[in-house]
């Protein structure tokens, strides 16, 4: 009986560990410029989170985190500095926004993805076009836990360069159990005024020039950062050939997608 209990306990522990483990996919992707990039896609079913990461040909490291529990997308960009301009080694920026869950396959579905030929170079079959995000608010990383607990850990190096939008704040305020006061205290506009002292319903953005066209360093201006996710699974299908007939849970991705993100900063 004692051995049975020990065996049963071991099985329960193993099942628990399997439930919390994170699955990884390494995808070779050809982007629109013809470069071959390596995407790492991780899925954590317990946390209900998907993380995608790749390094661009210019050295920029891009990390995308999808938090399904809170419907939050975090995009982190680690941009290498230009030494000839006296810039620091690198700069880290984070961009946090609301998304609709139908836009991405679930973390559970992603965790079931497998590749029959891991060395295959993937090319997007569908172009999702461009999405423009105009960031008009600073987000205080240390106060971001009510938005998503993952912001603080992912954006720890971007304490002064994490951004979001007023329209995203409106979405988060409507979430059940959210504290409007706590959420608004976590964000500031670019004049360093807490959003709690502003009118959340005022969606008008200031008319400012591009930073490249502005000589005065203290005048508000806009700059932009364009990022492209070269390949992302949007569906699943079961393997049918003899090779994977014995693996009922083995799935391969279909309907590869590509989408570009243009991030505008009002600074």
Automatic annotation (TrEMBL):
InterPro entries: Oaf, Oaf_C, OAF_N
Name of the protein: Out at first protein
Positions of the Out at first protein BRICHOS-like domain: 24-172
Domain of life: Eukaryota
Domain Out at first C-terminal stretches: 210-241
Pfam annotation, one family: OAF_C
Organism: Odynerus spinipes
Family label: Belongs to the OAF family.
């Amino acid at each position: 009986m004692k051995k049975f209990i020990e065996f049963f306990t071991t099985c329960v522990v193993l099942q628990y560990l399997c439930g919390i483990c994170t699955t990884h996919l390494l995808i070779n992707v050809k982007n629109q410029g013809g470069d071959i990039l390596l995407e790492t896609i991780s899925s954590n079913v317990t946390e209900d989170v998907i993380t995608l990461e790749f390094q661009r040909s210019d050295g920029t490291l891009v990390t995308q985190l999808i938090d399904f529990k809170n419907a939050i997308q975090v995009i982190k960009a680690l941009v290498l500095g230009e030494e000839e301009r006296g810039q620091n080694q690198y700069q880290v920026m984070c961009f946090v926004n609301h998304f609709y869950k139908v836009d991405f396959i679930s973390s559970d579905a992603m965790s079931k993805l497998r590749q029959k030929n891991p060395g295959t170079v993937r090319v997007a079959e569908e172009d999702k076009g461009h999405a423009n995000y105009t960031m008009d608010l600073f987000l205080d990383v240390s106060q971001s836990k009510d938005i998503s607990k993952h912001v603080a850990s992912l954006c720890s190096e971007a304490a002064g360069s994490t951004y979001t939008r007023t329209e995203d704040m409106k979405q988060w305020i409507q979430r059940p159990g959210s504290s409007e006061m706590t959420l608004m205290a976590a964000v500031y506009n670019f004049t360093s005024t807490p959003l709690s002292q502003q009118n959340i319903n005022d969606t008008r953005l200031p008319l400012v020039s591009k930073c490249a066209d502005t000589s005065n360093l203290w005048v508000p201006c806009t700059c932009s950062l364009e990022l492209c996710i070269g390949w992302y699974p949007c569906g699943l299908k079961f393997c049918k050939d003899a090779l994977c007939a014995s693996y009922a849970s083995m799935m391969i991705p279909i309907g590869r997608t590509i989408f570009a993100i243009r991030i505008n900063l009002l600074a």
